[in-house]
Amino acid sequence: MPPVPTPPTDPRAQHLMNEQQRELRRLYNDEDSRTEPFDPQTLSGEGSLLLTLEEDGRLLACGALKKLEADTAEIKRMYTVPGARGRGLGREILSALIQAGREAGYARLVLETGNQQPEAVHLYERAGFRRIPNYGYYADMEDSLCFELPLR
To answer: H or E segment at 131?
Structure first.
């Protein structure tokens, strides 16, 4: 089943993204109690798109596009539940997001991942993303790795 657009207000999607945030906090030993649960409004704006993969009514993977500038969107919220990893679901989501970015007319996609996520780095590099200097919020974060993919 291909990735499908999903409202960020879907409780299953919210649960999936909250799980992603919990996993990242564990991975990076981030005990920041100020971190709030996923806010669906962050993916509700113009140019935003949340895609999910579902099996037997359960969401297994997600990823989103969020408009940053007129010609640039950011890949956000890439996540696959641990029990479904190794099946290529992240690759499916990423490919669909790249296609959606092209169809929306974006000139490039950017993303941030962490230096403790070699599988994610490999996924992005295999899809053609190349390292760029850390941008925006991530500019001074030592654990962050930023990437870009020109679409034109």
So the answer is: strand 130-132
Give φ, ψ of 73 to 5 degrees. Answer: -125, 155
Q: Do 44 and 80 meet the contact criterion of CB atoms below 8 Å apart?
A: no
Residue range 6-19: mean pLDDT, rounded: 93
pTM value is 0.93
- Distance between CA 71 and CA 52 in Å, rounded? 24
The dihedrals phi and psi of 119, each to the nearest 5 degrees, come to -65, -40
**Cβ contacts of residue 141 below 8 Å, gap of 6+?**
134
SS3 content of the chain, % helix, strand, coil (to 5): 35, 30, 35
Question: Going from the N-terminus, what domains does the chain have, and what CATH number goes with each?
Answer: 4-111 (3.40.630.30)
Cα(94)–Cα(123) distance, integer angstroms:
9
CA distance 56 to 53: 10
What is the token pair recorded at 72?
């640039």
Whole-number Å distance between alpha carbons of 132 and 16: 28
The pLDDT tens digits for 65-98 are 999 999 999 999 999 999 999 999 999 999 999 9
